[in-house]
Structure formats: structure tokens, C-alpha cells
Specification:
This protein is mostly helical. 95% of the residues lie in helices and 0% in strands. The chain has helices spanning 2-21, 25-98.
Length: 99
């Protein structure tokens, strides 16, 4: 009799434990839907952020290119000025040597 009561109590505990551990499919479905929506939203935010980064990088590259062209133009002008100054100095030196 004692064994029967023990087996009955063990069976009741097992049944209760399995009933508690059964997943609530409606709750899981709702959680899954919320997780999917959050992932979808995060994906959209990521795409938008990457688009902004791409636009900023393109704008920066354009600015760097324009700055490079301006610096090259200024460099050419400075080189021309330096050549002119050197030519003037050479002319003056040549003139002094002739005198």
C-alpha cells in the first residue's frame, strides 16, 4: 500500500510538472511576433543608417577631391611665382655680373 501511495504521489508530481512546463503557444506566438517586428524594425533602421553613412562618405570624398584640386591649383600658382622670382633674381645677378 505504501508503494502504491508513493507511485501515485510520484505520478501526480510528474503530471503537475509536465503541465507546468508545457509551453503556452499563444504566448510564444505573441513573443515571436514581437521579436520578428523588432528585428524588422532594427533591420530598417540599420539600412537607413548605412544609407546615411554612404551619403556622408560620398560627400566627404567629393569635398576631398575639390580640396585636392584647389591645392593643386594653388601649388601650380606658387611654383609659377617661385619660378618667376628665381628668374628675376637670376636676371638681377646676371646684370650685376655684367656691371
Amino acid at each position: 500500500m505504501k508503494k502504491l501511495i508513493t507511485l501515485l504521489a510520484a505520478g501526480t508530481l510528474i503530471a503537475a510538472a509536465s503541465a507546468c512546463s508545457k509551453p503556452d503557444t499563444e504566448s510564444q506566438a505573441a513573443d515571436s511576433a514581437r521579436a520578428d517586428a523588432a528585428l524588422d524594425s532594427a533591420g530598417k533602421d540599420l539600412k537607413a543608417g548605412l544609407g546615411k553613412i554612404g551619403d556622408a562618405a560620398s560627400h566627404t570624398a567629393d569635398g576631398i577631391e575639390a580640396s585636392g584640386k584647389e591645392l593643386a591649383k594653388q601649388g601650380k600658382a606658387a611654383a609659377a611665382d617661385a619660378a618667376s622670382d628665381a628668374s628675376t633674381a637670376a636676371s638681377k645677378a646676371s646684370s650685376k655680373l655684367r656691371d
